[in-house]
Fold this sequence. Notes:
The structure holds four protein chains of four kinds.
Chain A: E1 2-3, H1 16-43, H2 49-59, H3 62-90, H4 97-121
Chain C: H1 12-40, H2 47-54, H3 57-85, H4 89-119
Helix pairs in contact in C: 1-3, 3-4
Chain D: E1 3-12, E2 22-31, H1 36-47, E3 66-69, E4 72-75, E5 88-92, E6 98-101, E7 104-105, H2 108-116, H3 136-143, H4 153-157, H5 159-163, H6 169-180, H7 188-195, H8 209-213, H9 220-235
Helix pairs in contact in D: 2-6, 6-7, 6-9, 7-9
The structure holds flavin-adenine dinucleotide, protoporphyrin IX containing FE (HEM), iron/sulfur cluster, FE3-S4 cluster and FE2/S2 (inorganic) cluster (FES).
Amino acid sequence: MYKRTFIFDPGYYKFVGSWAWILHRLSGLGLIFYLSLHIWVINSLTMGEESFTRVTTFLNSPVFKILEVGLWGIIMFHAFNGVRIVFVDFFKGSLFHKKLFFAMISIAFVLWAIGSYLLLSHISW
Amino acid sequence: MKLDEAKLYHKIDAVVVGAGLAGLRAALEIARNGFQVAVISKVYPTRSHSGAAQGGIAAALANVKEDSLDLHMFDTIKGGDYLGDQDVIEFFISEAVKTVYEFENMGVPFSRTEDGRINQRDFGGHSSPRACFSADITGHVLLHTLYEQCVKQHVHFFNEFQVFSLLIENDSCKGVVAWDIRNGGMHTFHSKSVLLATGGYGRAYKITSNAHANTGDALALILECGLPLEDMEFVQFHPTGLYKHGILLSEAARGEGAYILNDKGERFMKNYAATKMELGPRDVVSRAEQTEINEGRGIGGKDYVYLDLRHIGKERIMERLPQVYDLALNYLKVDAIKEPIPIQPTAHYSMGGIPANVRTEVIKDAKGSIIKGLYTAGEASCLSVHGANRLGTNSLQDAATFGRIAGISMSQFVRDNKFENLPANPQDAALKKVSTFMNGTGKERHSVIRALLQNGMTKLAGVFRTEEDMLKLRVLVKELQERFKNVTIDDKGNSYNMDLIEAFEVSNLLSFSETIVEGAIARKESRGAHYRNDYPKRDDENWLRHTLAWQTEKGVVLDHSKEVIIFRDRYAPQERKY
Amino acid sequence: MSKTFKETSKTGAVLWFFQRVTAVILFIILVYHFVYYHFISQGVYPWRTVVAKMQSPWFNLLQFTFLITALYHGLNGVWMVAEDYIHCKAWRLAFFSVILMVGAALLFVGTLTIIKISSLKI
Amino acid sequence: MAKVKLNVKVLRYNPDTDKKPYWKTYELETEDDVTILDVLNEIHWNIDGTLAYRRSCRSAICGSCAMKVNGRNVLACETGLHQFNSHKLKIEPLPGFKIIKDLVVDLDEFFAKLERILPYLILKKPTPDKEFLQSPQDFDKIQEAAMCILCGSCTSSCPSLWANEDYLGPAALLKAYRFIFDSRDDGTDERLDIINDRNGIWRCHTIFNCMEACPKDIKITEYLSRLKVKATENSI
Ligand SMILES: Cc1cc2nc3c(=O)[nH]c(=O)nc-3n(C[C@H](O)[C@H](O)[C@H](O)COP(=O)(O)OP(=O)(O)OC[C@H]3O[C@@H](n4cnc5c(N)ncnc54)[C@H](O)[C@@H]3O)c2cc1C
Ligand code: HEM
Ligand code: SF4
Ligand code: F3S
Ligand code: FES
């Protein structure tokens, strides 16, 4: 007998459900990584005025703003797909999960665009 | 590959060959009685052809409308054109109700009436709604439930094992020899009793609703052991087989009011069965279709007619006939809502088979002498419940009920008897078959021979039969048997050698087909599914008899001395009109 | 059937259910958090102003809830992913300990931060 | 109905001679209204008898012929050529299962998992003389789940199974659903205890590949969700 290994079978990843899952997983892992950083950074606020200023200046730099735009996108995706998952689990979302996916993604996208605009518009380039 | 000798020998109380409804029901009964039982099947149990049955299983529960055992019995006898043995039918009908309730209690999901009882629907030839059903997957749920019950009872399954020979010596059966399809290797099953439940033989025909697995293996093995087959000439043709594929479109389509049309767009059934029209019995409608085709009124002059659902309307089609719709779409690219579906008669059910008495013991002659320890049930058997023509939904009931009876008989037998010694060199016959194919040097392909046989059978021993055609067929079968001696296979390996299996199956088809042909030539009357253009009338004077057919050196030998058992006072033969 | 099947763990239902509960809570908090801190309060503010705002009890409560739920949800998520891919019992145990430790550390740092901020003298 | 030329790539493997599966291409001519199974039959019968695959009913009810064709799991017997745009076919065995030979995969584990969830009615009440009563509404709950033909398409398409071969898989879990939600059954607790497991229902992440793959269009994920809720109710 021969066992094929299927850690990744590109042939099968072309359906909405599996993309949603992969992205959700990756975004979730990304977020927990970010959260750890976030906690550590906030901690520096308590070190006194000097470090605070250093950090906030960095936080307002264009580089960070662009990172933040990405983060906001990841959060929007994860959050709204998360809502989709909750629907699938509790409210018969399975029956229209594809439509739900596109609906949620659209909302997430719109909010991401608005948020990004707000974020970037505050930068003094 | 070296195989462990010890693993090739199994000693077990009872062996069941075939994991369809009949086989599993028997195995379940034996296991419940506390005996060791092995089920040998060439496909996984849930893949058996019983799962294809859609319509329902007959029992006079009277859940929907009034019904009685008497009425069920009468319908069955009349449907079978009075060739059924009435003592067996009476027993069958009396057990049927119990069989269904037992199924329900095992967990079969039956469709329900509003008050929660098993729902029943009308079916061709039954005079009351008697078919207990589960949507359009009745056979499927029965088969799966039985399999699951067998799992619960720890039945030993030998899946993907194909029986290659029976061990019969001195009128007593001592086991079977089977080939392990998956790994290769011949296994000997030494047992006190054996049940043959290998299903139908529709695969002898080109256009058939039967599965690839329905090659009547056990029938050929029975012939090989010098035992007879019964009533082989009776093969039922179903009128609505999907064109070219033969796949069954459920009778429910006509029940919902579908039309059958010829090339001119006529509902030609008006010329054949003016009152019942499309809802006439299967044999009548099949013959009408075939007549239209033969007389050049098939669609475009070809060999099919139309099943027209269009007037039924989209909603009703999707609600009531989803499977019919899907089949037409997937197989023929025909959208049944907008277009008519091409259909043709398809070989559907085998009334004939291995003769047995009401206890399912295999018999070896017209007097009813039995072979010790050998049993048969289901479509492979011929207890003659269905006579010359089976009524829809009676066959699942037959397989289940007589499966159970076989289980009871076998348990009894196992309890009362000791193991007998195996014959010397039990595997010889089976191994010889394998080596002939593996070492064959000829040039013939089994697939070619099979195609020729199937074509011949469909054309020459199909819906209509004449002496002339069948004499041609006799020659053809002989010729193909000769050619088959030069068969060779491409695959010489042990693992999953499909080539070997198919070669073996073709040899079986060639073997028992002979008995169909000879039986049909000899039966000079028309009865039920057997219709002779040259003898279009039923002849109760001479032919209220079963056919027993043996294969000998000198060809097929027939015996018509087994008379049909008829309760003249109650169910005397009368004309069969619908 | 493989033997590994028998190493059962019956915590699946709890993990699954609370992942969803925390998800819903997070959804609400996170939207609020982002809107308030990232969109509205933009630009470089004086330290004093920020800290003052951060010392309201309402803010502390919110922050703390966020910390707990996000940590629980995130680490629980990582653990669920690990359950998918790590089949060896020992490794699973090791990984679980790591998650616990990381969780404890982050919880400690986070809580400390909140406490410190609210006790800062402006 | 016209003739077409086909280019068929089949993943071949013979355990007796090959170390690894390899692709073999067949060129043949057929009618354009044939099914994938017909194509395989044509190859097996007339071109290369060594090709092995499973089939029986050829009417989409026995579940033998599940395989991966042009990138998705289908029943070969009900899949017509016309469902593909091109005349190039790529046929391989179900992913995620061990290959026995060519397109034939090992289903022992698949069936063993099925047996694990106690796939039979468990009764703790006496059986009635006739049938158990069950309302049509209760029947509707399990009707679709009972349609499963155990073809294995779903389980073999699930990424969770690819990552963890001990995962029970959607087919077995669907069977569990079919019994747990059967109004006649009394074995809910036993069964929930089995599926509420590291390798049970919690490995399902609503990926939906199973539903894409199911030839009977069973809403598998929906039923698994109901199982999850039930399992949660039971243990919290
Ligand atoms: C399309 C279709 C629809 C039908 N619809 C209905 C219906 O609605 N109602 C009704 O009552 N009847 C119906 N029938 C008929 C009914 O399904 C069959 O008569 C019945 O299921 C036969 O059951 P069985 O157990 O005898 O055989 P099967 O179910 O055919 O089982 C045969 C078994 O034998 C095994 N086998 C065969 N040869 C060997 C060998 N050499 N070695 C090992 N194992 C072997 C096979 O693997 C299989 O497991 C229908 C039939 C068809 C074809
Ligand atoms: C905004 C609100 C959020 C919602 C609605 C949400 C929703 C969900 C849901 C429903 C799951 C379960 C997925 C599954 O079981 O298949 C999940 C998983 C996960 N979440 Fe969130 N989440 C949110 C925020 C976060 C945050 C802030 C983090 C990081 C700290 C995070 C990290 C994760 C991780 C790591 C997983 C596991 C991924 C997986 O199992 O595939 N989530 N989320
Ligand atoms: S649920 Fe669908 S895909 Fe899965 S085994 Fe059953 S029929 Fe096949
Ligand atoms: S693909 Fe697998 S993860 Fe769940 S929804 Fe289907 S079982
Ligand atoms: S051959 Fe039975 S499902 Fe395809």
